[in-house]
Design brief:
Number of strands: 5
Structural class: alpha+beta
Number of helices: 4
Shape: globular
Distance between the termini: 26 Å
Strand order of the largest sheet: 4-3-2-1-5
Order of helices and strands: HHHEEEEHE
Amino acid sequence: GKFAQSRVEMMRGYAEGEGCRRAYLLNYFGEAYQARCNSCDSCRSGAAFTVDATVVPFPIGAAVLHRSWGDGQIMRYDGETMVVLFRSVGYRTLDIGIVTTEGLLSPLEGSAA
């Protein structure tokens, strides 16, 4: 279903991404890691980039609410995008600018991250 397909897309993002692979994996599992590991193929080739922590609207692991997809959890940031795991539709990659300007996500009240 949709959830399984979103997992495939996350793995495609890992395989095709230009960022630090360690950061991608740790962010995937909800752990903040924004430095370059300097050990993976992306870091060694010079392709990896770091996330500017000042642009993130929610911390990694935060519970959020989307008006159509319901509740979700912030999983990772990758450049200008953020990945949210929604119970109803699985992983979704969203543009940070659109999320911020359109108010697409709001903090989920009364829920621990």
